[in-house]
Amino acid sequence: MADEQTPTPAPEPPPEGASTPPVVEGSAAPAPPAKAESAETAPAERSATAKPAGDAADKPAKKAKPEKKKKKKGLPEKELVLVGSSSPHVVSDETIPRIMYAVCIALAPAILVGIYCFGLQAVKVLLLTAAACIATEAGLQRLMGRKITVIDGSALVTGLLLAMTLPPSAPWWICTIGGMLAIGVGKQLFGGLAHNPFNPALISRVILLISWPVELTTWMKPGQGFANLGVDVVTAATPLGLMKEELIQKGSIHVVSQFHLMDGLFGLNQLGSLGETSVIALLVGGIFLFYRGYITWHIPVGYVTAVGAVAALFWGIDPSRFAPPAYHLMTGGLFLGAIYMATDMVTCPVTNRGMLIFGIGCGILTYFIRTFGSYPEGVSFAIVIINGAVPLIERWVRPRTYGHNLSAAS
Amino acid sequence: MGLFSNLLTFRGGIHPPTCKERTNHGRIEVAPPPSRVIIPVAQHIGAPADVVVKKKEKVKRGQVIAAAKGFVSAPIHASISGTVKEVGPAYSATGQRVECVTIESDGEDAWLEGLLTDRPDYMELPPEELREIIHNAGIVGLGGATFPSHVKLAPPAEKPIHTVILNGVECEPYLTADHLLMLERGEEVVAGLRLIMRVVGAKEGVIGIEANKPDAIRHLKELTKGDPNIRVATLQVKYPQGGEKQLIYAVTKKEVPSGGLPMDLGIVMNNVGTAVAMFRACRYGEPLTERVTTVTGAGIVTPRNFLTRIGTPFGELTELCGGFNGAMGTVINGGPMMGIAVPSLDVPVIKGTSGILVLAKEELPPREYEPCIRCGMCVRGCPVQLVPSALSDYGETRMLDELEGYNIFDCIECGSCSYVCPSKRPIVQFIRYGKREILAERQKQRDRQAAREAMAKTAEVAA
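Structure tokens for the assembled complex are given below, as produced in the milestone run.
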């Protein structure tokens, strides 16, 4: 009889560092808990102690079942099984899929504007890119023998974000290669979700832009309807493209005067990437994410303010060569980048001050690339470059822990 | 959310569901004295008490069964009258096996003769004497930390105390013991506060209560009306508002220096239940043999609040609540955020048992976790402004220097980070692991140094 054996030292509480604390089953019998035995000394049947898993674990489980009815009488039964747990014993219902699908919802307004403006072309780009991302993620995870996690929605988010940065007229192979690059090079190469130092969608866009500049800078005019899925769409240059061209050719800018603020705000009549044209739609989604607590104000506000401030400075120096702040704010992928790309959790700092510095850095760099670089648009490059500086920012910027540097606090 | 609230609060924190509606009404019920109590001799922070009774010895309620060993320690008293049945190791509600005294009731429940004395003039006694009474009554922090109270009440002369804060926040979800205590024994809470103020010589008294207990706030405001030295502070409902450092910041906007104590700021903080126990000890000569505890959770048929004897097995109290409804998974000593899962229902109520929480298996955190996606929710939730995401990563990879650089020892293990983590990372566990590893490493270094010195000495002698 197991009960008559000498009590053996009881199992220690689960090691605190253990990733998954072993199940601790305790005897609820009237006998003092000193009688509890370790799995080795108590052969299967009456064992009631720590046992991570295995054959023996089945038996108490079976026993527990018929007892459930008796429990209703209110008496603790003989071999009631208690589950071990380490504090905190409750957690919120926040999960990675919940965050990812919330981002998808937040992107919906801008995506709808894109589809409204660019019709079936936009639908094609969105579907192809997202499908390429999901397929690449699943395929690579399978190849590596890892758990396939496409259901968590992170590949979908990457796909949608990438599609939104592509020209609506992008050919099918750009979408496909782009999706593969984003997940393959941007994410899985580094170890998958949470391990990538750079924003996967933007890494992909940067590679595409450098490799196929023509396809990546051919912009179709909005309002060409749903019939036009062919290749003969009417194209033109984006506001930032026009500005750069004019600046190079004539040394001054006039396009700026033809720009209408409302076009930038609503984006219904503006050229640009699929999802970047409507500032209002992007803001609506951003407010949703802010409300849900998935982004804070630091990056978007820091980013946009920095672009506006630097633009104002240069505009003040020479308005004939530098565009006014409003022009910079309302054109290009600034709001898409500031609200959705720079705030990518994995690739931005975790502290508030760090995020503010990160946002401001992105803003300053964006302006300089736009104005003095060889590309008209600078958001993608700026964010990817500042992504690389995140570990440094994290090292330098740490919150002041409660009770530390009290002289600095007051 | 709390952005426009003018209620007092701290920085950071989280908003778990409070789950208090099951037990925050009705009365504190007096649990019948159990037929058997198991009383651990280590129920406080500090040295365990020395057992002074033998097997088969007859004891009375209130009799010392284990004497305090040293200054930071507290005596342990019998909570029922009867016969000592066993002295030996058993599981305590802390999940550890410690020396316990098991007493079988004689059914009389008689106090030790000459112990109870009504002292209406207790406030006239000199502070040293009151401190002595509190020490002898075995009183420790009843909020859960179980720090011996007389130590807190004996600040060194160079650290004068100006403010006593009573902690009636009870921010742990589910628990309502302090809430009902303030409602039913408000007079004793206030008397306890005045007593502590007298012992430490403080001018100001503050009772901190979370805004979700409006009846308690009203009651205590009523009771302290006309006393210019005592005020009731209403605090924002946020976890861990009742953490010592958090409450001090909320009330005074001052921070306890890292590694320091509230007395460095001239503050002493005590739980409301502790204040009541101190009052009863000084006024009636009653040692600490009972406490209020909440028995609750999804797994309990009828959740209730009990005034119960120290040493009562958990199983007896859950039985009084109608037992389990089949949903039982884990039984916790304390609340869901900082409580300890117990290994068996035989573990006894100890001085720090503010609640017995029975959670269903489905309510427990999942055992699997994902890598950190650096969402920053833990950083924003941390009530001491650490970077839990970094601590969790460095803890997982055992990078001890980095952990120290991130101020790991300032972590109060409140669990806010683990609670909000979308990747369900056991962040607090990684931090505890890290702390333990660092301490072990330091010990190793010290041992090595000692060995080196010893060797050098031997060499010297030999030379």
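Chain B touches chain A through 98 residues (CB under 8 Å). The domain at 122-284 of chain B is CATH 3.40.50.11540 (Rossmann fold). Further analysis is deferred to the final report.
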